[in-house]
Structure formats: structure tokens, C-alpha cells
Design a protein that fits this description.
PPA1309-like
């Protein structure tokens, strides 16, 4: 049986922009998988994204904290990202207020956020009561509700990537992935980097 050789990467695959998109997608998968390991009913979590090579240059001791395969990947690609979870987030009434109060220093190349939400199929929201408290109660009791976890990341001045996991299909191979799955949240995270 013969096999054809793997074609060399095209210029498009090796361009910094393409490598940055791949690094961002990898970082979102890693963040989403990390958060998923803690289970459901979790608070909002926020992560700074830094280019690993730059972080290693600034803090050489970081190398001792990275798995050998992560360190090798980081040394091979200057676009490789490391996520740093942010502790002690400021108090905020809602996600929009939290994100509106965040700013990042220039050493942070991107940001990621995970949040859980309840969604209904199209049209189901039309039947919710107008009173906010009654609407929340009806939403939580709705037979067609879906619990979802959203992971959204954006690079400063660059691409975005999203992951969506449903509680009903809580499996690593059932996570939806794409650049703009949650456009409103993408824009809110992007605004923290401006």
C-alpha cells in the first residue's frame, strides 16, 4: 500500500494571521475544556491571553510550569497562546457591567470569557411574561430550555473564536466551534481590548 506524502504547508497556512487564528482556536478549546472539567453551574470566568514566547522571555520560570508538549509547541510557534485566569474580578451586577469595567495592559494579546446561559428555541421567548422575575421563572421552567456554556476569545486587533457546549450533549466531541457563534459577546470581549 502506498501513501502520498503530506503536502508542504501553503503560504496561507504559515502566515502569521493564519497561525494566530489557529493559536486562538487552540486557546479557546483549552479554556473551554478546563472550565468544563469543573462542571456546570459555574460563575463567569475571565482569562488573559498572552503569547507564550513573550511570556517566557519576561518570566523564564514559566517554562517549569508548562507541560513539555506545550513548551515545545510554544517554542515552535511565536503565535502560541497561554491563558491566565483572572482572580478577584471586580463586583458587577451582570456580565455586561463586568466586561465594561475590564481593561488590559499591552502585554495581554487577547482575552477570553466563559459564561453559562439558558436559551430557548426561536419564538419561545414570545410567550414569556413581561415581568422580569416572572420571565426568569418561566425561562427556567420551560420544557424546551437548553443550558449552554459559551467560551469566547478575541485577539487584540485580530480574530475571534467561540465554543458552545450544551448541558444536554456534555461531551468534548459535541462542542460547537466557530469564529462568530456569539457575535454580541465577541464584540463585548473585543471592547475590553481597545
Amino acid at each position: 500500500m502506498s501513501t502520498s506524502p503530506t503536502p508542504p504547508p501553503s503560504a496561507d497556512d504559515t502566515a502569521p494571521e493564519a497561525r494566530a487564528r489557529r493559536a486562538l482556536a487552540d486557546a479557546v478549546r483549552e479554556v473551554e475544556h478546563h472550565v468544563a472539567a469543573a462542571g456546570w453551574d459555574a460563575p463567569v470566568r475571565v482569562f488573559a491571553l498572552v503569547r507564550t514566547q513573550e511570556a517566557l522571555a519576561a518570566e523564564p520560570g514559566l517554562a517549569d510550569q508548562l507541560a513539555p508538549e506545550v513548551l515545545a509547541a510554544a517554542l515552535a510557534d511565536d503565535q502560541h497562546l497561554t491563558s491566565v485566569e483572572q482572580e478577584g474580578l471586580p463586583d458587577a451586577d451582570d456580565l455586561e457591567a463586568l466586561l465594561g469595567g475590564l481593561t488590559w495592559p499591552p502585554t495581554v494579546h487577547g482575552a477570553a470569557v466563559t459564561v453559562e446561559r439558558v436559551v430557548l428555541p426561536p419564538g419561545a421567548e414570545d410567550d414569556l411574561p413581561s415581568d422580569p422575575e416572572a420571565a426568569v421563572a418561566a425561562l427556567l421552567a420551560h420544557p424546551q430550555r437548553q443550558d449552554v456554556r459559551l467560551a469566547v476569545a478575541v485577539l487584540r486587533g485580530g480574530p475571534s473564536w467561540c465554543a458552545v457546549r450544551t448541558r444536554a450533549h456534555d461531551s468534548d466531541d459535541a462542542v460547537g466551534l466557530g469564529p462568530d457563534l456569539v457575535p454580541g459577546l465577541v464584540e463585548a470581549v473585543r471592547a475590553t481590548l481597545e
